[in-house]
Design a protein that fits this description.
This protein folds into three domains: about 170 residues, Immunoglobulin-like (Sandwich); about 160 residues, no CATH class; about 110 residues, Glutaredoxin (3-Layer(aba) Sandwich), CATH 3.40.30. Helix content is about 45%, strand content about 15%. It contains 19 helices and 16 strands. Helix 1 packs parallel to helix 12, helix 5 crosses helix 6 and helix 7 runs antiparallel to helix 12.
């Protein structure tokens, strides 16, 4: 009971551990400080920005490209698409460009500016943050892929530009739509300045110190984990025994141990820097990797698995070498080299406790400049080494070392919930169309962690390998299946919202009309859309017969759609209705689960528009 206040203070501080991991993907868009609020305006009101767009078709040496140009009023600026934030998440809102769903076009990369933004270090609202601003006219470009059979001359690519236009005193929210048609595009430099020079530099000044402080705090908290804290006292006693009466020798042993610990973190930093080389090879600015959906989903999955480890669902395995007899022999040596080896090996043996924290940290640092990567890992390492360095120099501080107990497990669990909070945030950054598939993947990962934990570490290698194979295989099948079945089709139809008026107008014009009655909560509807309706052959037939496609979305209660279903003698979905161009003919109604053949047969039977 005497330790309860200490435990309470520790638990109240644990949310700080999520600071480094949460920074991995920035923060939700905000208008920030110093006049950055909405100021009572609606998006687009009194707009200080106009936008236009065009696209070019693919050539032998270049993919199709989409160009979005913004003209900014004098005295105003837009922030860059890769505008960074401070370590606490504050900062201006980056410009974001997105395409509307259900179009026969897909982005194949991220938007980059033709000319790099102007940069300067803020000294007011976000002191120390590099601000990246476009003024006058700016053009962004991105590679795109048109669905097979798409007529570029008839295509209009619909999209949206969002951000904030700011002058020195105020900011105006910007939300503008564009419709890109085929054109000549804009010349792209052989080595685009946006890729070569338009990079966010390392957070300078106060923000870099904030990153270092977060890493240091995280390292200190890791010392309180169940597989770390009990070892500290034993190692300190061992070094005191080796050093005898010489405090200098004892301190030297502690420093050697800390150097071994730091060596492990520097190896991790170097691995992260190596991954950064791959990112740089793709001409991405620092942080731009977080604009890729696949990376956001991967980070969500990684942090979720680490949270499950902190919550006791499973444990990360100890690296094989660290548990080997050779490693034990190295760690058992006395002297400086033995202390160094002991520091490195003990750090590896703590992977089951430290790994769930270091995984998200690794994910965060691969999106940062090398200086930030090494600062973060060095800070975490110094935090973990602090007890050895401080107590080695001031032995009386050992009285302040908390005693191991059940509170350590509670602390670890609380950290697990903190990481789950990070998962919620990361999930919110993923495009809505991938929500269901991502949630399904997380369930698969949960099963994998549970299956792995069913076989304890003392079982044979074959038994543990079998558990890993089962868990990973199931997670892979579930994940691949989810993203195959539950994500948007590669051949979307040109849907228009359904209304009785739009249906009547299309029929009055002599059009064949296809109406899909669907809802987000209807799984069979989603399967029909994926495997029967939005298929290449169906889209080609729809275009060839000039069929109008209407989407009757019943996700929320809608009396008009209920009435339309009743007219078709149905009260449920899914339902596909095809109205022939000849008004004297009967409506073709296809309920329940469909195949592509069913849809093609019905469209052929309905015939083309008049």
């Amino acid at each position: 009971m005497a330790q309860a206040p200490f435990a309470t203070r520790l638990i109240s501080a644990t949310l700080a551990l999520a600071a480094v991991a949460s920074s991995a993907a920035g923060q939700l868009p905000e208008f920030g400080k110093l006049g950055g609020g909405l100021l009572g305006r609606r998006p687009g009101e009194d707009s200080k920005v106009t936008v236009k767009a065009e696209f070019t078709t693919a050539t032998a040496d270049r993919p199709a490209m989409l160009f979005v140009t913004a003209d900014i009023a004098d005295g105003y600026h837009l922030y860059a698409v890769d505008q960074g934030k401070l370590a606490d998440g504050s900062g201006p809102q980056p410009t974001a460009i997105s395409l509307d769903a259900n179009q026969p076009v897909r982005l194949q990369g991220e938007f980059r500016p033709i000319e790099p933004p102007a940069t300067h270090i803020d000294t007011l609202a976000w002191e120390g943050l590099e601000l990246r601003e476009h003024q006058g006219r700016v053009t962004w470009y991105a590679p795109i892929e048109l669905a097979e059979g798409t007529d570029p001359q008839a295509l209009r690519i619909q999209g949206k530009l969002e951000g904030q236009a700011c002058d020195p005193h105020t900011c105006v929210p910007v939300e503008l739509s564009f419709a890109a048609q085929a054109g000549d595009g804009v010349a792209i430099p052989a080595s685009p300045a946006a890729a070569a020079a338009g990079e966010a530099s390392a957070p300078p000044g106060r923000s870099l110190w904030a990153v270092a402080a977060s890493g240091l705090l995280g390292g200190l908290i890791l010392n309180l984990m169940p597989c770390v804290l009990p070892v500290i006292g034993l190692k300190l006693f061992s070094f005191a025994k080796q050093g005898g009466q010489s405090r200098g020798h004892v301190l030297a042993l502690n420093i050697s141990y800390s150097a071994g610990l730091m060596a492990v973190f520097m190896v991790l930093a170097t691995l992260a820097a190596a991954v950064q080389l791959g990112i740089r090879a793709e001409n991405l600015g620092w942080g731009q990797i977080y604009t890729y959906t696949w990376f956001k989903i991967s980070m969500t999955a990684l942090v979720f698995a680490m949270a499950l480890s902190f919550l006791g669902i499973w444990e990360l395995p100890i690296p094989g070498f660290a548990a080997s007899g050779k490693a034990s022999a190295l760690a058992a040596q006395e002297g400086m080299f033995g202390a160094f080896c002991m520091g490195a090996i003990t750090t590896l043996l703590a992977v089951p406790c430290s790994g769930p924290f270091l995984g998200p940290v690794f994910g965060y640092t691969i999106s940062q400049p090398p200086v930030v990567t090494y600062v973060v890992f060095a800070a975490v390492g110094i935090g973990m080494a602090a007890p050895y360095l401080l107590i080695g120099a001031f032995p009386s501080l050992i009285a302040w070392l908390p005693k191991p107990g059940a509170w350590m497990e509670t602390l670890k669990n609380v950290l697990g919930f903190a990481l789950l909070g990070t998962v919620v945030y990361l999930f919110s950054t993923i495009d809505e169309e991938y929500f269901i598939a991502t949630l399904t993947l997380l369930v698969g990962i949960w099963f994998a962690c549970w299956a792995i934990a069913r076989v304890p570490p003392y079982e044979s290698f074959a038994a543990r390998a079998k558990a890993w194979a089962l868990g990973v295989s199931v997670a892979a099948v579930v994940g691949v299946g989810a993203f195959k079945l539950l994500t948007p089709s590669d051949s979307p139809l040109p849907w228009q919202p359904y209304s009785p008026q739009s249906l009547a107008l299309a029929r009055a014009q002599g059009k064949t009309v296809l109406v899909e009655f669907t809802a987000d909560w209807c799984l069979t509807c989603q399967l029909n859309r994926k495997f029967a309706i939005e298929r290449q052959e169906v889209r080609e037939l729809v275009e060839r017969n000039d069929v109008v496609t209407l989407l009757a979305d019943w996700t929320d209660k809608n009396k008009l759609i209920e009435n339309a279903l009743a007219e078709l003698n149905s009260r449920s979905i899914p339902l596909l209705a095809i109205y022939p161009a000849d008004p004297s003919r009967e409506v073709i109604v296809l309920p329940d689960l469909l195949t592509q053949g069913d849809v093609l047969e019905a469209l052929v039977a309905a015939g083309p528009s008049l």
